Amino acid sequence: MSLAFLHAHDCSEAHADAVWGVSWTKNDTVVSISADGSIKQWVSASGESYLPPDQPEYTTPSPHTLGLVSLSVSADGQRALYNSLEGLTCLWNLETGKLEGTFESYMAQGEELEPSPHWTVSLSPSGTTYASAGGAGILEIHSAAPESFGRRLSSVFSGRNKFGMCCSYSPDSKRIALSSEIGQVSLLDVESNTFTTTYSSHAMSVRSVAWSSDGNLLLSASEDKRLSLYDVRVSSAKGGGAVASFSGHSSWVLSVDISSDGRLGLSGSADKSIKVWDIAARAAVTTVQDTGEVWSVSWRPRAPSAGSAGAFVSGGEDGVVKWWRGAGTGG
Amino acid sequence: MHEAIIEDVPITKRDIYYRDVNLYRAQQTVDNLVDDVAATLNLERSDLNVRATSKGTFCGSVLSIHLSTGEITQGTNSEPALIPVGEDVETFSVDDDLAWVLVVEKDAVFQTLCHLNVCNDPSLPGKGLLITGKGYPDMATRHLVKTLSDCLPSTIPIIALVDGDPYGLDIMSVYKFGSSRMRHENQKLAAGRIEWMGILSSELTGLGIDKDALIPITDHDQKKALSMLHRPTNIMPDSWKKELMHMLHNRRKAEIEILYDKPEPVLQSDSTRSLSHSQLKHFVFVAQALDG
């Protein structure tokens, strides 16, 4: 099978610097974060800035002084959690436009001697907590409730004192995946709050991971130019657990997503291209050329209508958020 | 220092250190103490009769330095010459046909360019002056660069080539804005006209450099970069901030040597003074290809 994806449109006004994160929300808007320090929301159908009806004072948060590196939008599309280069973490209500919480993770908290600044953050499906990781390979869970935003609830060492590049709650809330700069992907079991599994399919940084909607599959994107697919129900023997490997990119894979029906993988790469993968067939079905490194990709959450391949959004080095739609299926 | 003033015998910071190595333990301690005393008394270090020592070198027949002793340090186009300490210098004398000034961070790069006769190369838009401070520049080097910045016509570009890492950019910052430790002497030493030519992280992909050829940043680099990102805008321009952030996000840095072994360069067209910049870059690439 081969699919074609066409460039549908761009955001109405580009970010002033690279887009480092995008997320297509349940409400059919797209949230984007940029190296220019700003977070924006766009209407998917048109690419225009999102302005809710009856709320003329709705604004996006003022840009940070430093770039934003991590974005996690709640399952219901109500809130966006995002984090800056130095570890200033904020929770923005997408409906009201209000900032509901800020947390300076680069400041030592309470009795701590050393702060542990966040790099990557992920909102839990319930929206009550968020996970974070940073330089020391520790996965932390914090309150996401506005009245106690940022308060650390737990802290678990992954076993390796290495930079945590990406953490992500599974959609069923059972696990949190943490990927490291040296390639490991570890799974924390939320209930027991312990790491139960570590995959070693990559030896180079894993910059992004994505869950399938049923929480059974995990896809990783690595600087080794490959994606790995893990079935988390299979207990991992040493270094095992990866059920497939996807090659084809000629440079670092920077970002990854899985479609809501679990059939298609999506990857953005430093080779300036985006690839769509047929997961069952273990093969790329299309490659889309962009003009610069593609830092972030996100599938439209709504399942595509029959006969259509769906749609996705991408963000990259040129600061432009781009929408792509499937041109119908091939043979 | 008191002795040096009373007896009118100048000493260097190195001399002070060696008077009592056990007490001071490190040269840096003496350096800091001397600077602190000078700042407290609102004097220059030279007023305390503590002489600078020089480590910076230059190359280029266009420059001759007249010392207060009457001697002349004459630059040549293929051999480095030591930059004399500021207090010994009477005047700098520069030939009319000087067309460009290039300040490089590292001695190794300076040596390569010097021995390749860059200063007098026909493919470049005229005669040049090459300078290196061998890392963080001392006051003598900064004094020379500052003087050139102030006195040369603005048609003559003064550009810096440093490693694409936080320390390289900090060295660039010392030349252009002054050293954070010596704010009280900054008026004398900030070379406002110096421009950052590279290496810029943002141009590495365009230069055909494989991301895997870049060096991972260290914890030190990360801390240094984050601390630099918090500097006020007047000493941390937006374009520099952008480069530092991209460096942190990519988690990679680049040394000038990464340009070695590159075949043909891809010339950048976005610089306003792009003619001499791109020609110089071209030359640097070609020179390193020949050498490496």
From TrEMBL, chain A:
SMART domains: WD40. The keyword Nuclease does not apply. One of its GO terms (cellular component) is nucleus. Keywords: Repeat, WD repeat. The keyword Repeat applies. WD repeats lie at residues 12-42, 199-233, 246-287. It holds the Pfam family WD40. This is WD repeat-containing protein 61. The lineage of its organism: Eukaryota, Fungi, Dikarya, Basidiomycota, Agaricomycotina.
TrEMBL record, chain B:
It comes from the Eukaryota. PROSITE patterns: TOPO_IIB (PS52041). The active site is at Y18. Its EC number is 5.6.2.2. It catalyses: ATP-dependent breakage, passage and rejoining of double-stranded DNA. GO terms for cellular component: nuclear chromosome. GO terms for biological process: meiotic DNA double-strand break formation; meiotic DNA double-strand break processing; reciprocal meiotic recombination. Residues 100-262 form the Topoisomerase 6 subunit A/Spo11 TOPRIM domain. Its cofactor is Mg(2+). It is found in: Nucleus. Residues 1-50 form the Spo11/DNA topoisomerase VI subunit A N-terminal domain. InterPro entries: Meiotic_Spo11 (IPR013048), Spo11/TopoVI_A (IPR002815), Spo11/TopoVI_A_N (IPR013049), Spo11/TopoVI_A_sf (IPR036078), TOPRIM_Topo6A/Spo11 (IPR034136), WH-like_DNA-bd_sf (IPR036388). Belongs to the TOP6A family. This is DNA topoisomerase (ATP-hydrolyzing). It comes from Rhodocollybia butyracea.
